[in-house]
Structures are given as C-alpha cells and as structure tokens.
Amino acid sequence: MATRLSDASVKRLPTPAQGSKVHYDGDVPGFGCRVTAAGARSYILNYVVRGTGRERRYTIGQFPDWSTTAARTRARELRREISDGGDPLGALQDERAAPTMAELCDRFEAEHVVRKRPSTESEYRTALRLHIRPHFGPHTKVADIRFEDIDRLHRKVTKGAGPYSANRVVSVLSKMFTLAIRWDMRGDNPAKGIERNAEYSRRRYLSSDELARLVKALAEYEDRQAANIIRLLLLTGCRRGEALAARWADIDLTAGTWSKPPSSTKQKEHHQAPLSAPARQLLAEIRGEQIGKRHVLPEYVFPSGNGHRMKVSHDWDRLCKAAGITGLRVHDLRHSFASQLASGGASLPLIGALLGHAQPSTTARYSHLFDDPQRAAVEKLGAVIVNAGKTITAPVVKLKGGAS
Known about the structure:
Helix 6 (147-161) packs antiparallel against helix 7. Strand 5 (251-252) and strand 6 (257-260) form a beta hairpin. The chain is elongated. It has three domains: 7-97, Integrase, DNA-binding domain (Double Stranded RNA Binding Domain), CATH 3.30.160; 101-182, Orthogonal Bundle (DNA polymerase, domain 1), CATH 1.10.150; 208-367, Intergrase catalytic core (hpI Integrase, Chain A). The protein contains 16 helices and nine strands. By secondary structure, it is an alpha+beta fold. The chain has a four-stranded antiparallel β-sheet. The protein has a three-stranded antiparallel β-sheet with strand order 5-6-7. The longest helix has 20 residues, at 163-182.
C-alpha cells in the first residue's frame, strides 16, 4: 500500500540503477515522485483524459524547488480540471506549439512583404527589424499580444523615432494581425483602435533659386544615371519607384507618352502620362547612350545588374548638400511639379490626372497652391469694379463762332 509522501520521505527515496521509477502518494490518486538514475526527483500526476481513454503524465515540478505539500495541492487542482473534461498536458503542449511573434514576422516577410513595391518592402522590413522584432522578442506568443502592448510600442517609437515612424509601425502590425486571423493564429486584431499621431501634409517645394542650384548640381554630379533619375522626377512629377522601374517598352518617344503598368503605380491602375519636349529629349539621350555602349537596348531605362536601379537616397543627400538645399525629400520634387502646374494655371483635376491620382481628395492637398492665382483674380476683378465707378471727363473743345 502506498504511503503519504513527505519532503523527508521523498529525499530518502532510492535511486534506480537505470531509467526512472515512480513512487506514488497514498493520498492523491496518480500523484507521485519520479526518481531517475541520476538522482533527480520530480513530482508527477498520471491521469486519463475523459472521453478518450488516453493516459497522460503531467510533470508538476522538481524537488526541492517544489515542496511535497505544494505539489500535492497542485495535483488536486489538476484533478479537478481533469474531472471537468480538461487535459492539462494537452493544453501545455498546445501552448508550447502556439505560433510566436517571430514566426508571424517570418511568415509576414516571406508571403506578404515580398509582393510589395521595393520602397514599401524596404519600409516594412525596416519597421520589423528596428522596432517590431526587438520589442516582442523571439518567444512571445501571437495569441498573448494585447492592445496595451501595441500602444506601448507606439509611444516608444514616437519618442525615439518620431510620430510618423510610430504610425507606420502600427500600420504594419495591423496588417500582420489581419493576416494572423486569416492564418488561424488568433481571432482578433489588437492593433485596431490605436490612436495614431497627428500627421500634417508637407508644403515643401523647390524655390526658383533652389531649382537653379539643383540643376547646376545635377550637371556636375559624377553619377550620371542618378542625375538623370532626378531629372526625370523633376520633368514628369512621377514617383521615385515609377522612375526607377521605368521600362523602354512603356515609353513612346514619338507620341510623347509614358504608359505606366498597374504593377508600377501606387494605385495599381494603368496610368498614361504625357511627356514634355525636355522629358523626351532626356530619354532620347539616355537611350542613345545605352545603344551606343551596349548595342542592345536594355529592358529598363535605369538598368542595374539583372534588373533596375533600386535607390538614389544617398545620391539625393549629396546633391542637396552640393546645391545648398535643406529639408527637401525626393518625394517633394513631385510636390514641386504640382506647384509649377498650379502657377501655370492648371486646374486641380488636371494636376490630379498628370500625377496619376485615383481620388480627387488626394489632389485636394494641393489646393493651397491656388492662393496666389486666386488673389490675383480677385484683385483684377476689384480693379474693374472700382474703375467702372469713376467718371472719365473728356476735354472741352471750343468751336468757332463761340459754340462749345
């Protein structure tokens, strides 16, 4: 007959010659102490899963980390859970097998990020590498993430990297958890409802002096391909990714059009843009140089290796420094293009069409560019109204005979 175990009796249990042996308690059924040939002692509970007949052995903890009294109390708790239909060992195994944040990040990069445009892919990978992976670590379970965990990360990134970066990190996390729901990793999205930082549209454009200095710097820059990419951005107002991925097959220099396929545009829609005479001349010169060097026209306007050039950020920094320009991003060249169109009298719908905007609300951000033309128009109207009220007196001409 089994006797009631105690700390003293567990300490005296004999060590088997090999393998392990379980010494059962005389108080709680299935509860006992397992002793190995190496002398290790662990409290265990043997049980049968209700409805399946499957036998399980759950390890409670080691002696002397656990006292016999504490282990027996835990064994009773487990038996109550088992009698209610629970399976403690199965639940523990499920928890250990549950996907981690590291696994979610890996799958997100492998199945989702790789399908994005290069600039978006780079942004996602940066958010994952600098903020998301370090914050959650390799072992945190996807199912354990709560709203407050993401809110805490948002505040942390806001303080360290700025409000815009923090918003982008939350956007990436929100997409990750949307996919986690689809992949049966959890049932809800804890990133929903995070209060984002306020963002304000930039109103940074090239001034006439800055444009002149930039053109001069471009003429003197040693990397001609990088300089030509910036020139194309200036002349067409296209996005950086569209310029980098431009293909000769989409450009018709005779008709003066650039037919951008959906795969290269932000809206994933086809966009045909007209090319000005200077833009056509630039592209013709690039094409002539490529044929002269290679004798075969490459697929891309700006080739590199087996594909196209991917970045000009370093070159842009050097060009701005050479031109004495501060606080201007590459994307601001697109804003400057819109500014020049507005000052030339183009309407917002026309500007939106040239920039390839799918929604009028996107173009509405440039409405402030019409302040000066609107002011000039009302001043002109005011002058007409004021002059209309003035009496214009004609000179008096005296006629012969005293008549006037």
